[in-house]
């Protein structure tokens, strides 16, 4: 395991292994213009009408926003941050049994991206833990640190609660019933990715994660204190500066498909740095296995035909399982209905 997990390898190296070196043309850094654009910050403790408008506007413009005043107890956040650090600081022997390169395993420690990447390697270690609904069974999680199961399970419930509240606000803003996204579309599980990005000796030659769109419904990210997330915007990259006591929220591809493009899932990536390790925690709201993903009838009409194919959640995941550095919006392929160069509205 030690040779495959980045945070267990020697940290004094002056260069990165060749497998992590990415083509220079795909490593365009954020420009000064991108650095001067900030993600909207929504205070969820404000009036409901104001919060609803702010979330919908921010989501339509950026697909990403930060939230404060969210009601998640600060102690739960501090406990989560602490137990994540404790896990990665444990001796290798205590983590070895949990390491796996088998992507079919719901709970595992691995290095790199969870997507198929056509051979590229990425500068990230990740502990992925799945919190199934409604059982909340954590028996397959690591038993060390001793409080990991309790803390992460509590955090998963709180993160999902925040995600569902945001979805309800979006529904109100779009004229839907508040519980529109309850049920199978959000009721499968919460997938928690505990991301650890060790210091990188050559951050200009690699990435922590490739440009990608999240596949699930909505993501709630605990960003940590060290910047590293970058979001695509107007042909550039926005460098996200974490706001104290905030979460970063972004729409997944499934939300884009269900709303027939009213809401957009936006590409983002993780960059590295040479000075300090970075930790973040992403909570993904995952549908039930039997769910079908497609444009909902409320978002389709004579003047707004379906823009996306309808498919099972399993097919959806397979369709969006490959990330290619050569594509600018690399996860729209295979799901959008392509217009044909003919008269009328003929689709394929």
How would you characterize this protein structure?
Strand 8 (229-233) and strand 9 (236-239) form a beta hairpin. The longest helix has 26 residues, at 148-173. The protein has helices at residues 32-35, 48-62, 74-89, 92-95, 148-173, 253-258, 313-319; strands spanning 41-43, 64-68, 108-111, 125-132, 189-197, 209-212, 218-222, 229-233, 236-239, 247-251, 268-270, 278-286, 292-293, 311-312. The chain has 7 helices and 14 strands. The model is unreliable at 327-333 and 339-348 (pLDDT under 50). The protein is α+β, with helices and mostly antiparallel strands and 348 residues long.
| Rg estimate, integer Å | 20 Å
> What does the average pLDDT come to?
87
| Ends distance | 47 Å
The profile of the biggest β sheet is: 8 strands, mixed
Helix content: 10-25%
Which strand order do you get reading across the main beta sheet? Answer: 1-2-10-7-12-5-4-3
Please state the overall shape, judged from the principal axes of the Cα atoms.
globular
Sheet/helix structural class = alpha+beta
- Low-pLDDT ranges: 327-333, 339-348
Number of E strands: 14
Discrete helix count: 7
Beta-strand content: 15-25%
* N-to-C series of helices and strands: HEHEHHEEHEEEEEEHEEEEH
Give a short synopsis of this structure.
The protein is an alpha+beta fold. It has helices at 32-35, 48-62, 74-89, 92-95, 148-173, 253-258, 313-319; strands at 41-43, 64-68, 108-111, 125-132, 189-197, 209-212, 218-222, 229-233, 236-239, 247-251, 268-270, 278-286, 292-293, 311-312.
């Amino acid at each position: 395991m030690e040779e495959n997990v980045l945070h267990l390898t020697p940290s004094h190296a002056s260069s990165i292994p060749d497998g992590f070196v990415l083509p220079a043309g795909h490593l365009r850094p954020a420009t000064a213009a991108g650095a001067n654009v900030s993600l909207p910050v929504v205070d969820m403790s404000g009036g409901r009408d104001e919060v609803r408008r702010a979330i919908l506007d921010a989501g339509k413009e950026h697909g990403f926003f930060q939230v404060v005043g969210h009601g998640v107890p600060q102690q739960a956040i501090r406990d989560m941050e602490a137990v994540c650090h404790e896990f990665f600081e444990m001796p290798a022997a205590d983590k070895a049994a949990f390491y796996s390169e088998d992507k079919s395993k719901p709970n595992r420690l691995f290095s790199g991206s969870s997507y198929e990447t056509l051979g590229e390697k990425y500068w990230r270690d990740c502990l992925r833990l799945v919190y199934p609904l409604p059982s909340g069974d954590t028996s397959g999680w690591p038993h060390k640190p001793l409080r990991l199961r309790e803390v992460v399970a509590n955090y998963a419930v709180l993160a999902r609660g925040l995600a569902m509240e945001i979805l309800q606000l979006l529904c109100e803003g779009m004229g839907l019933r508040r519980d529109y996204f309850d049920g199978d579309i959000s009721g499968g599980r919460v997938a928690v990715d505990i991301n650890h990005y060790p210091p990188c000796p050559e951050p200009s030659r690699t990435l922590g994660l490739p440009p990608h769109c999240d596949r699930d419904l909505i993501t709630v990210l605990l960003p940590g204190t060290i910047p590293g997330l970058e979001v695509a915007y107007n042909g550039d990259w926005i460098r996200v500066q974490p706001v104290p006591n905030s979460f970063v929220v972004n729409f997944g591809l499934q939300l884009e498909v269900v709303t027939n493009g009213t809401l957009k899932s936006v590409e983002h990536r993780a960059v590295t740095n040479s000075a300090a390790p970075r930790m973040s925690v992403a909570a993904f709201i995952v549908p039930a296995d039997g769910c079908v993903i497609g444009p909902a009838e409320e978002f389709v009409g004579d003047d707004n035909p379906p823009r996306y194919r309808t498919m099972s959640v399993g097919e959806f995941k397979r369709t969006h399982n490959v990330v290619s550095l050569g594509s600018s919006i690399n996860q729209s392929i295979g799901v959008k209905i392509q217009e044909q160069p003919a008269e009328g509205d003929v689709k394929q």
